[in-house]
Design brief:
This protein is of the alpha+beta class and 164 residues long. It contains eight helices and four strands.
């Protein structure tokens, strides 16, 4: 199954990305390295070593996730979901990128980060494809500010969203 999903040129990249990506999808509880490893039947050190080198593999990740979506969509329809999420950092005066955001889950404005996520779901599984941090006017400045949907207004921005 893994070899039919992945089509990257480097075998070691295939192996580690496949393990980690599928581990994220099939792990039901909190996704820790130990839990992912136990679901995959591998040692947790393999997952730790992959994450230590993950920045090398990031350019391959969106393409691999899209191939996984193609595989699962053969068995039924799904939906592309574009959604933002708030990560509360209420004591974060010095963390780069934090500012005042509205947290709809709590119904109030607080310090934190906002991340816009693109994912595919069939109702049973959800596969993340890409994400982008969104920054408020307070953080980025008025000249560079874009709303959460403005970066998706051109084709090149759509592609960059998937690959960054």
């Amino acid at each position: 199954m893994i070899s039919s999903i992945l089509k990257t040129p480097i075998k070691s990249v295939k192996k580690y990305l496949a393990n980690y990506s599928l581990g994220l999808i099939i792990t039901r509880e909190k996704r820790t390295c130990t839990k992912i490893a136990s679901y995959l039947g591998i040692g947790h050190d393999s997952v730790y070593r992959f994450l230590a080198k993950a920045h090398y593999y990031l350019p391959f990740f969106p393409g691999i996730m899209i191939n996984i979506v193609r595989y699962f969509s053969k068995y039924g329809n799904g939906w592309l979901i574009l959604d933002d999420t708030a990560i509360s950092k209420i004591f974060s005066r010095f963390i780069e990128g934090t500012g005042y955001i509205y947290n709809s889950a709590l119904g109030r404005t607080e310090r934190g980060m906002s991340i816009v996520v693109l994912a595919w779901s069939n109702g049973k599984i959800t596969i993340p494809i890409g994400f982008k941090c969104w920054h408020s006017k307070e953080v980025i400045g008025i000249k560079s500010y874009k709303t959460k949907i403005e970066p998706l207004s051109t084709q090149s921005e759509k592609f960059r969203f998937l690959t960054t």
